[in-house]
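Standup notes
- DV: blocked on the single-chain target, sequence here:
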Amino acid sequence: MKRLASVLFVLAAVSGGAGCVGSLSDPDAFIDGGTPPKDAEMVFQESCGRSECHDAVDPQAQLDLISPAVEDRVVDQDARTTGCESRKLVVAGDPDSSYLLDKVIPVPPICGGQMPVAETLSLDDIEVLRQWIIDLGGSGQETLDGG
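- DV (later): unblocked, structure below
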């Protein structure tokens, strides 16, 4: 009886699987169980706007990372950390020159403390911000050195 149940299970799986072969109209929508991929706005909302850090109401260092058009407030703007004012928050297209990215990478930044204060961003979130900075440059290339 056990063998018969196993055979029926295998046959059902094979015949049922054959009926499912095909393609999805939007397979990217099913990555991570249907959760849409994060963008920079989501990373800022989840990690920078909590605990009243860089929200729209009373942003730390007068840096609102939550309101729409955040790029207008960060691209080519001087860093606001004491002693770091010579750095640009975001250099469009150049994540390696962008102070904002230095602040979230989990190694001591060149100037000031790591952000967010209470946690470290995931490598995926850091990559989302890195790619966002590249995309702000409008070049469409993955890396500045072509590699």
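- Follow-up: Residues 37-147 form one domain.
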